[in-house]
UniProtKB/TrEMBL annotation:
<feature type="region of interest" description="Disordered">
    <location>
        <begin position="92"/>
        <end position="182"/>
    </location>
</feature>
<keyword id="KW-0677">Repeat</keyword>
<dbReference type="Pfam" id="PF01344">
    <property type="entry name" value="Kelch_1"/>
</dbReference>
<dbReference type="InterPro" id="IPR015915">
    <property type="entry name" value="Kelch-typ_b-propeller"/>
</dbReference>
<feature type="compositionally biased region" description="Pro residues">
    <location>
        <begin position="167"/>
        <end position="178"/>
    </location>
</feature>
<protein>
    <submittedName>
        <fullName>Uncharacterized protein</fullName>
    </submittedName>
</protein>
<dbReference type="InterPro" id="IPR006652">
    <property type="entry name" value="Kelch_1"/>
</dbReference>
<keyword id="KW-0880">Kelch repeat</keyword>
Length: 475
């Protein structure tokens, strides 16, 4: 019994021990599994935190770049502001040197003619308030302009003169023979409104229809002077192209841009309403150039233009239409933003949207023609043929030919627009008339040598009217 009892006891003990040992093994297995899963989840969390940290660092770097850019822009604005303040201070000093006494209540200097004795100015509508002092144009009082003597004495008309001191002095622009130096202009009538708002685009005409494009638009419109009808044509391939009419009343688009890239192509709209590349490409790709053609339509002059964002070129190229050959000539003295050009007799004039402008002899610039395909000669064209024009009365004016003379139309500073028409007389800009509505960046086409057709522009309100100005009557 004892032995068997002990044996039974022993056997029961051993069985219990085995069960206990097997239970310990299961607990160890579960503990290992839970430890591994915990390590795996911890690793995933660490990876996610690393990704978030990297994203935060990238965002921080971008924010830092934006902050640096904003600080740079702020610094540039501060520099421009300081420059304007210094210019205003210089202008005030100049005004004090001209007359130590202050201006009278009428706004005239003490040495000026009293208002009661002054000739009545041209009537103005929508006249803008007096502008603050500006370092570029200096206004002088109204005065009577003495005309050149002729066989029969003629009356002089009042003009609002602008004085300037360009360096070097531009050549005197001689008036046409048997005509007074100062034009008399009058508003004939208003034409039909254009289909859309137009400003700072391009215009081309050969005297019959006129073609118009607006700034940053591919739309092309034709205006018939005799019927006063607008017609929308096939859109241009590029924005901000210059326009010129060479033959068969077909417009040719010069340059332009596709997105932000300028082009050097010339595309002609044929009567089949398709654009054709009938002329060779320019050497310099550009948008918003000034484009004019000679009276015989055998030469096209392409002046300036934008080759990159806010980067305006000084290059001038000439296309000989018959031979389809490009020539390079002397560059302008300096760049002009949004150039506007006009040919008056033997003079080529070009102005910018600022108050700068240049002039040169058309004969001299044509004599400088050197084929672009040839290597540079020892006598490389230089800029001596270009002369400064007197400082323009306003910014954003438009150049035009009226009665064989150069005139600038409209303009303004900031949000203000003016309705003046100015002409150069004795190296000064003289007001010879005014529009019914103040406008800047308008488009101008010649209906005839004595008539100009003014379209659109920008004013305090959008300008959509057309005006015909006549210069056939002289005093």
């Amino acid at each position: 019994m004892f032995v068997s009892t002990n044996g039974c006891t022993v056997s029961i003990y051993r069985y219990s021990e085995e069960v206990t040992q097997s239970g310990d093994v299961s607990e160890l297995g579960l503990e290992n599994v839970s430890r591994r899963s915990l390590e795996k989840s911890t690793t995933l969390q660490v990876e996610k935190l690393s990704e978030k940290e990297e994203m935060l660092l990238q965002q921080l770097a971008r924010k830092q770049e934006e902050l640096d850019k904003a600080q740079k822009q702020l610094k540039e604005k501060d520099e421009k502001l300081r420059l304007k303040e210094s210019q205003v201070a210089d202008l005030q000093k100049l005004l004090k040197q001209r007359d130590p006494e202050t201006k009278t209540k009428t706004g005239l200097l003490a040495t000026d003619t009293p208002p009661s004795k002054q000739p009545a100015p041209f009537p103005r509508k929508n006249q803008v308030p007096a502008l603050p002092p500006h370092p570029l144009p200096l206004h002088t009082p109204y005065e009577t302009v003495n005309l050149q003597p002729t066989a029969k004495p003629r009356k002089s008309i009042p003009g609002h003169t602008m004085t300037c001191t360009p360096a070097p002095s531009p050549p005197e622009l001689s008036p046409p023979a048997q005509q007074p130096a100062q034009l008399k202009v009058q508003c004939l009538h208003k034409g039909k409104r254009p289909p859309c708002s137009m400003h700072r685009g391009s215009v081309a005409t050969d005297g019959t229809p006129a073609y118009f494009t607006s700034h940053d638009s591919t739309s092309l419109y034709k205006y018939q002077f005799d019927t006063e009808q607008w017609t929308e044509l096939v859109s241009c391939h590029y924005r901000n192209s210059g326009l010129v009419v060479l033959k068969d009343h077909e417009p040719t688009a010069v340059g332009g841009r596709d997105g932000s890239l300028p082009t050097n192509k010339l595309l002609t709209l044929r009567q089949n309403e398709l654009w054709h590349e009938t002329y060779p490409q320019m050497r310099t790709a550009r948008s918003s150039p000034a484009v004019v053609s000679t009276s015989d339509c055998n030469h096209v002059v392409v002046i300036g233009g934008c080759i990159n964002i806010d980067n305006w070129t000084t290059t001038v190229e000439i296309l000989q239409v018959k031979s389809k050959t490009w020539y390079k000539v002397a560059n302008m003295t300096g760049p002009l933003p949004f150039p506007s050009a006009a040919i008056c007799g033997d003079r080529l004039h070009v102005i910018g949207s600022d108050t700068s402008g240049y002039s040169c002899s058309l004969q001299e610039i044509l004599q400088q023609c050197q084929p672009i395909s040839q290597p540079p000669l020892h006598s490389v064209p230089h800029t001596s043929i270009w002369r400064y024009l007197p400082t323009l009365p306003q910014k954003d004016s438009t150049a035009a030919t009226l009665g064989g003379e150069l005139v600038v139309i409209g303009g303004g500073f900031g949000e203000s627009s003016v309705n003046f028409i100015h002409q150069i007389v004795d190296q000064k800009w003289v007001e010879i008339g005014c529009l019914a509505t103040g406008r800047r960046r308008c488009l101008v086409a010649n209906e005839s040598p004595e008539k100009i057709f003014i379209v659109g522009g920008i004013s305090e309100d959008s300008v959509e009217e057309c005006t015909v100005i006549d210069a056939t009557a002289f005093m």
